[in-house]
Amino acid sequence: MSATSTEAPPFSITEELVPSIAPKPPSTTFIDFSGLLNPPLLLQDDPTECGGQLWPGGMVLAEYLLRCKMPALRGKTILELGAGSGLVGLALALYPLRPSHIHVTDLPPILPLLRHNISLNSPETSILAHILEWGSPIPASVHSPSDILLAADCVYFEPAFPLLLQTMQELMGPDTLCYFCYKKRRRADMKFIKMARKVFEVKNVDDDPDKGNWGRDGVHL
Asked: Which residues, in sequence order, are bridge partners of residue 152?
C-alpha cells in the first residue's frame, strides 16, 4: 500500500514558476503620417483582436493617399474593407480636402472599436461604420458601387480569399478604382493577387516617393 503524494512531479511547470501572461491593455496613439495630418489622428487599438491592431499595410496606404492622392479623392465616395481600428478611413476623413463620404466596414466584434475611434476624432459628418462580412449579401446601408475601394492587410487568412474577391466584385462598378495594400508574410499572400488579376486590371503603384522604404519592408501597393 502506498500513500498518495500531493507534491508536484520533479519537472512540472507550475503557475508560480511561469505566470500566465496578461493581455496587453488597449493603448491610444497620435499619428500624423510624417507631418501630413495636422492635427494628428487619435487612434485606440485593441491587442486582443487581430483587426484591432495597427498593421504596416494600413500605415503605408494612408500615408500614400494623404501624400499623393487627396486632390483626386476630394468629393468622392469611398468604401474601406476590413477597416479594423479605422486608421485609413479616419486619416482621409480628417484631411481638409477630404472625400465627400467615407464608409468603413468590418466584422461585428470590431465595430465598437471602429465607432469609438470615430467618436474620438469627431468626423461623424463624413464617415460611417458598417458591418460587412465578406461573401455575405451587401447590406443596403453600404454604399455600392463606390468611387474608391480601399483594402489594407486583408490577405492574412487564405480560406477567406474567395470571399474577399467575391465581395470586391460586388462592390466595384466599371469606374471604381481600388487601392489594395498588404505586407507579404507568406507565399500564399501572392496567391490572392494572382486570383485578382484574373478578374481585375491590376497595376503596381509607382508614384510614391517613399516606395523604396516600404518596398524593402515587403509591403505591396
From this structure: 181
